[in-house]
Each structure stands twice: as structure tokens, then as C-alpha cells.
Amino acid sequence: MSDTTTRRKFIDTTCRVVGFAALGGVGAVLTSRASAHGVYQVDPLKCTSCDLCRTTCVLSLSAVKAVNEFSKCGYCMLCPAYMDVTSAPNEKGVPSGKVCPQDALKRRVVGKEDPDDPNNNYYEYTVDEPACTGCGKCVKACKPPMGNGSLRLEIRYDRCVTCNECSILIACPEAAIVRVPAPGLSPLVTHGETANG
Amino acid sequence: METYPRRYAPVATLAGRGTAGEFRKSLSGVAVGADRAIHALGDGEVRVFDANGGVARAWKAPDQAACLAVAADGRVFVGAPGRVEIYGVAGNRVGGFAIGKAGQPADVSAVKVFRDAILVADASARLVRRYDANGVERGLIGSQHKTGSFMLPNRSLDIDVDAAGTVYASDTGRHQVTTWKLDGTPVAAFGKFGMARPEDFVGCCNPVNLAVAPDGCVVTGEKVAARVKVFGPDRALLAVIGPEHFDPMCIHIHLAVDSSGRIVAGDPVRRTITIFGRS
Fold first, then answer.
1. Which of chain A's ends, N or C, has fewer CB atoms near its CB within 10 Å?
2. Tens place of pLDDT for every residue, chain B, 279 residues?
3. H or E element that contains B228
4. 3-state class of A14 per DSSP?
5. Please, what sign has the CA dihedral across residues B22, B121, B223, B211?
6. Domains identified in chain B and CATH numbers
7. Is the peptide bond before A183 cis (omega within 30 degrees of 0)?
8. If interface means Cβ-Cβ distance under 8 Å, which residues of chain B face chain A?
9. Whole-angstrom Cα distance, residue B48 to residue B38?
10. If you ran DSSP here, which 8-state letter would residue B141 be given?
11. Which residues have a Cβ under 8 Å from the Cβ of B31 and sit 6 or more positions away?
12. Contact between B229 and B275 (Cβ < 8 Å)
């Protein structure tokens, strides 16, 4: 009796161990395959800010967002990515219109502030990501030689659902959506002021 | 098409492709000596061109040299990160001194000489530093701004000095040319942002470069679109040398004016030097 029970227990335990090991192995293989595929990212050297990132992402609000690389940013008072330089000037003589249709590019004064003239200051520009649609208008306006090229589009991993076939990748005419190993090309965006700010 | 009181046309091109003075990698600055000899900085060298466009002499420049100036006595001053090096007429080094603090080399974007004063544009400090002949700092220009410095979103500060010792500086973020006494006292400013009127300065940061002519005119170089403007002594716009003469990606147009008023413009993208004369 006890011998049979022991044998059954032994077979049962062995089967369980083998089963769990097999499942674990399959999981490991799948994980490793997923890692090999990596994640999607925007190649800023190929991207033309054509607006397809906004319109073709499967998410209702695209996972592609504009980001500002502070080390490249000029902290311009008259930022061509913030202000529509072709719009009519206001009473201060600076353009009255903004580039971003969502007003998602925000700015604040940095450095020594001129209390009398808000136009006589450096400004730090940040993207309000929940409002940004990834249209790339600011990125296009910031490209050299007009701007310093500090703004670029980037796929945000906290939003991207990593589709098997990224619809933006399929649509992008410049092949600017690339697969990269996690964490990918995500640039090291340093927050705060630089020597220029 | 706009018409202006003055017209300029190219009269010569130096350092063109296939010529003896061709710059293959870089063109970082131009200057004119008292004898009208054009000096240029590029490919790690200072080159002095003769009247026929050939290279009369050349010598090695400091690493990452970014600008140069020719003094009235023919000495050549070359600015590099954290340093100004001084050469004799023949290219022999005769001196030099450090700019900025140890470990924090200044971003020397322009150098000019007025008698014993050596003016150095320090783009990292966003100020002009005035040194004496021994390399001792004697004063600052630009610190009197309310924000304490020039506004330079594009990290470029260009300067020139006229025969009376008035210093001209490109305050690009404010879209102005500002003038100063040697001791740092502000004198005047002209220019403003604008996309429509040709006399205004476009974009985030213009004018990027400037030079002062012997007759008191101020010549400015702009990016987007790359063009050169000539403002009269009363700061009225006299002429525009249009973007058709420069590469559209030209962010700097290195400028100098010779004693006869000809404008020497260096295009660092095409790596050519064009001399414009009145037509």
C-alpha cells in the first residue's frame, strides 16, 4: 500500500516537475524571441515629420511623441518650433501664432530673468505628452538651419503596444521606423538647464 | 523684385574646387589684412591668398581653430577653444594666451584687434572679453545687459571693431547688432525680428555674422535664408546679397570687408570664398 502510494506520488511529482520545466522552457524561448525582435523606434536621421505617425498608429492617440533634447536646444526666445514665425506679430513684435495645434509645447523662463521684458529671456521647452499627437510640426520647424534640431519624434514605450507589425512602420515612406533591442534608441534626454540655459 | 540703393556682384571666387587653395574639409573664417590680402582659416591651416587667388603662404593652425583676425601690423590672431594664438606675418608663432578658466575652455567664436586691445568673443560665457597686448583680461563687453550677457541661442557670437574703436556684436537672440565702447559701455543697437521686411532679421537667431566696412556700413550675414545685407551708417538697408550666392544650409557666412569696401564672404558649406564688389 505504502509502496504504491510512494510510486504514484513519485510519478505524479515527476510529471509535475517535467510539465513545469517544459512550460518554463517554452516561455523562455518565447521571451527570448520577443527580446530578439526588440521594440520600435523612430530613426531621427530618416524621419521627415510627415504626420503619418499621428494618423497611422493603431492607438487613438499615437504612441509617437515629440521630445526635446535639451543639450541641443538653443532655449530661444523666438523658438521657430513654438511660434509660427510667419504669423502676424503681436504688440511686442513677436509672432502671435503657435506651431503646435494642440499647444503641447510648453515653455518657462530659465537663467537670469529680465523682469521688464519677457522677450529678453531664455526659455526651456518641454512637451506635454498627453496632449502631443505626434504630428511632428514642431520637429519640422526645429530642423536646421532654422533651428538647432533638438526636437524629434520618439516612440514612447509606456504607450506603444508593440504590435507584431507596427502600422507606422508599414506606412512610413522613409523607413524611419526601425526595430531596436530594448530599451532601444530612446535618447538620453537630460532634464534641466544646460550651459545655455 | 526689391531694389536697393546699392548693388553688389561677385568679382572673384577663391578656394574653389580644383584650385590650389581649395579647402577639402572645412572653412572656418576669413579676414583681410591692411594690404587687402585675404586670410582664411580651414583644413587646419591659415592660408594667405595672393592677388591672383593662389596661396601665397600657409601654416598650421591650432586644433579646432574657429576664427581669425589680422592686425594692422600684419600679425594674425587665431581663436581656438580656450586659446588665442598670435602669428607673425610669415606664420611664425609670436605669442598666445588662454581664454576662460582652466578646465572650462572658452568657446572662442571671434577675435578682433584694435590697437593694443584684443577682443575675444566668448560664446560659452556669451560675452566679449577685452585683453591687453600681454594677454591680461581688462574688461567685459555685454555684461551690462539686463540678463547679464548676449543672447545666443545658436552658440555663436561674432564681433568687429571700426576705426574709432567702436565694437559691433551680433546679439542673435535679440535680432540686433549692438555697438559698444571698448570699456563695455553700450552705445546703440539696431535691428529687430521680422519675416516680411528685408531689413528685419528672420528666425530664431540672426544676424549670425557681421563685419564693419571702412565707410561705416555694417555688413550682416544671416541663415535661413542665407544672405548678406549692407546697412548704411544711418542703419538704413542699402543692399542685399541674396541666397542664390550661398548654400541653403549655410548657417554661418564668414564676413570681412577690405579697405576698398569689397565684401569677402566665406561659405563654409561650399567651402568657397566669394568677393563681392559694387556694381
1. N
2. 678 999 999 999 999 899 989 999 999 999 999 889 999 999 999 999 999 999 999 999 999 999 999 999 999 999 999 999 999 999 999 999 999 887 888 999 999 999 999 999 999 999 999 999 999 999 999 998 888 899 999 889 999 999 999 999 999 999 999 999 999 999 999 999 998 899 999 999 999 999 999 999 999 999 988 999 999 999 999 999 999 999 999 999 999 999 999 999 999 999 999 999 999
3. strand B227-231
4. helix
5. negative
6. 8-278 (2.120.10.30)
7. yes
8. 124, 145-148, 151-155, 173-175, 192-195, 202-205, 223-224, 226, 248-251
9. 6
10. E
11. B38, B39, B40, B68, B69, B70, B76, B256
12. no
Domain ranges of chain A: 38-180
Q: Which among A74, A112, A145 is the nearest to B224, CB-wise?
A: A145
Chain center to CA of A154: 3
Does domain A38-180 sit in CATH 3.30.70? yes
Check A113 against B226: CB less than 8 A apart: no
Q: Is A112 on the interface with B (CB under 8 A)?
A: yes
State whether residue B241 is helix, strand or coil: strand
Rg (CA), chain A: 25
Q: B46 is written with which cell numbers?
A: 591659415
User: What span, in angstroms and rounded, lies between the C-alpha atoms of B84 and A173?
Assistant: 48
Helix (H, G, I), strand (E, B) or coil at A3: helix
| Largest pairwise CA distance in chain B | 53
Contact B262, B277 (CB under 8 A): yes
Asked if A147 has any chain B CB less than 8 Å from its own CB, the reply is yes
Please give the torsion angle defined by the CA atoms of residues A129, A131, A136 and A140, in that order, rounded to the nearest 10 degrees: -90
Using the 8-state DSSP alphabet, how is residue B18 labeled? T
- Are B173 and A113 within 8 A, CB to CB? no
